[in-house]
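Quick one: structure tokens for this chain, please?
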Amino acid sequence: QVQLVESGGGLVQAGGSLRLSCAASGRTFSTYAMGWYRQAPGKQRELVAAIHSGGSTNYADSVKGRFTISRDNAKNTVYLQMNSLKPEDTAVYYCHHEDAYGSTWGKGTLVTVSS
């Protein structure tokens, strides 16, 4: 099994920054990719950013140039640096892990951006 623990959410004013962290434990030796999804009220969960085992990354168009995903392999931790936050970034952010055995989701962390 894989366990994911997220941290770093909170309330920030528009234009501000936050950094989310997701620490993975358990079966992390066969990771394909880790990433962040978000779900705003009344909307479907959407991919924000992902980082793959080879180091490649991909981002939602809405966050390109503002968000950066990175990882620390020694700590089995993935980060999402979020800059120039907008009210429309308000959502619950979920960490996601994918490996040969399936997908695992974190419990989510709330990010609220005030205007």
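The first strand starts at residue 2 and ends at 7.
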